[in-house]
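Justification of computing resources. Each target in the renewal requires a structure prediction run like the one illustrated here; the chain below, 232 residues long, is used simply to show the kind of job we budget for.
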Amino acid sequence: MESSYILKVDPSNQQQNESDRSFIGGYPSIPASMEIPVCQLCGAEETFFFQAAFPESHEWHDLSMAVFACTSCAHEEYLIPEMLQDTLPGVDIPKGFLESYQRNFKINIFKTKEGIMRKGYKEKVQFKRWNLTPVSENAISENKIGGQPNWLLEDESPTSYNATVPMFFLLQLMEDFKFDIVPDAHPQIIISLRGNPEPSEHRYYELFLANQLYFFGTNDRSEPLVYILTQV
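Resulting C-alpha cells:
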C-alpha cells in the first residue's frame, strides 16, 4: 500500500524561497512555459491556491501539481467542479471531461525540477510552507498525500479515464480549510444569501466552498490529468 504524507503547515517564520516545492499561496513555482490561467467565465486571472510536489514513493514522483481557481466571479453552476452523472464508485471518466470541466479553475501538472518562482504573478494568498510528514496510518483524517482517501460519506473513487487509464488517489484537503489572504488582495466573490454575486466580508479565500476535496490522477505519467471530487 502506498505511503501517506501529512501536509503540515510549517510554523516557523514564513518567507518563500526558490527551493520551496510544496506550499500554500505566495508565488506559484511552475515552468516558464506555463501561463497563469485565466477564468473562462469572466476573463480574470485565476488565483494561485497551492501546489504540492509528490514524494519519491508516490506514483507521480518527480511531478508537481499546482491549483488555481477564480476568486473574481461566482456562478451558481460552477461553485464546485462539475460532477459526473454516472453512479460512483467505480465510474469511468469519459474522454475529454478532465480538460473541459476546468472552466473557472486550472490544475497544472509538471516536472518538479522545471518549476521556477513566478514573481510576475500578483500574490493574493499568504505564503505558508507545507512539510510532508510520512505516516503509517492511512486512515488519518488530515490534509495528506497518498494512501487511501478518508471519505466523509460513501466511497466515490473513480476507476478509470477513457475506459483505459486507471485512476488513483492523489491527495485530500479537509473541509473548512481557509486560505488567508495578503492585505491588498481583493475579497473573494461569493454567492450571497440573496443569490447574488458579491464580495465576501472575510479576509480569506475558500476553494470550492471549503468542501472536503479529493484529488484523483490518471496512472499515465505521459499525460497526467486530475479529477476533483467534493463531499460535504
